[in-house]
Specification:
It is a single chain. This protein is α+β, with helices and mostly antiparallel strands. Helices cover 46% and strands 21% of the residues. A hairpin with a 2-residue loop joins strand 2 and strand 3. Helix 1 packs parallel to helix 2.
């Protein structure tokens, strides 16, 4: 799976989880998961490459419980990998 395909799958997962994704100028921060007005939101720096955006999504989803959600096996594996890295 290419980085672009992986990003598309991660964006679709965000939609299924009702995580609003906002792309913007974050003044040097790559972004991350937050809660705003009771909803989960993923902020992503607009100047990041596709690969760097994938990393932001993976880091965010590695913090969430995804047991009851269908996730494409390759994507789930990458999220679990990130979870282990963050240990």
């Amino acid at each position: 799976m290419t980085d672009t395909q992986l990003l598309q799958e991660l964006e679709a997962l965000a939609e299924r989880l009702s995580v609003e994704v906002s792309i913007g100028n974050l003044d040097g921060s790559p972004g991350g998961l937050c809660r705003h007005r009771g909803k989960q939101r993923l902020l992503v720096e607009r100047r990041l490459s596709v690969r760097e955006r994938v990393e932001v999504f993976l880091r965010a989803f590695s913090q969430m419980s995804l047991e009851d959600v269908f996730v494409v096996p390759e994507v789930r594996e990458r999220i679990e990998e990130k979870r282990r890295e963050q240990g």
